[in-house]
Specification:
60s Ribosomal Protein L30, Chain: A, alpha+beta, about 20% helix, seven-stranded mixed sheet
Length: about 190
């Protein structure tokens, strides 16, 4: 199966840290709006769709690198919206490890599972993409997210796939928990 992309969107935010202007919080998102091959019908076996998501992950990974430029990537999250002629499980099939591993490769690793959220919606739908540290889930300073609103998608027979990253933890994070400098050698479920 080959996925048909209608549109790519990229989004970048630079949040200035008043205490440390040299270390802004950069957040980036890459969104692919694609045709839902199962719109309007039920498909029991989603393995072809899952396998097709590998190439999507590779392309999103390459675009994330471009969006972030030389900025490091410390946290990530994924989300998706399926149009109203589809079912939520379609977007979940596109966001499995098969999709995510090529992105991990492109951004230099990622041991922690990737926070995600999916829903059914249409043009104008807002979605909050949860994010956490890419190498250790319990780094509280990196619990964050991005709110994404898509103005012309997904159409009823489409799916929007969203991947977000950030260069550091929240500005002024101070609620404790595992510190970034303490995660070396830890597994992703710390």
């Amino acid at each position: 199966m080959e996925l048909t992309i209608r549109k790519w969107l990229m989004h970048v935010e630079e949040n200035v840290d008043a205490k440390n202007p040299a270390a802004p919080l950069i957040k980036g998102a890459v969104i692919a709006i694609l045709k839902n091959p199962y719109a309007g019908k039920y498909q029991e076996d989603l393995s072809e769709l899952i396998q097709a998501s590998t190439a999507l992950g590779q392309e999103i990974g390459a675009r994330i690198r471009k969006v972030m430029g030389d900025h490091p990537i410390q946290s990530y999250g994924k989300a998706g919206i399926v149009g109203v002629d589809g079912e939520q499980e379609i977007v979940n099939a596109l966001l499995t490890t098969t999709f995510a591993n090529p992105i991990r490769d492109a951004i230099g690793g990622g041991q922690a599972w990737i926070s995600s959220f999916t829903k059914v919606g249409g043009p104008g739908t807002m979605i909050d993409v949860p994010m956490a540290h890419k190498d250790a889930l319990y780094v509280r300073s990196h619990y964050d997210g991005m709110s994404i609103t898509l103005h012309d998608g997904p159409m009823p027979d489409e799916v929007a796939i969203i991947f977000c990253v950030a260069s550091r933890g929240r500005i002024n994070a101070r609620v404790g928990g595992l510190a970034v400098d303490k995660i070396q050698g830890q597994d992703g479920l710390v």
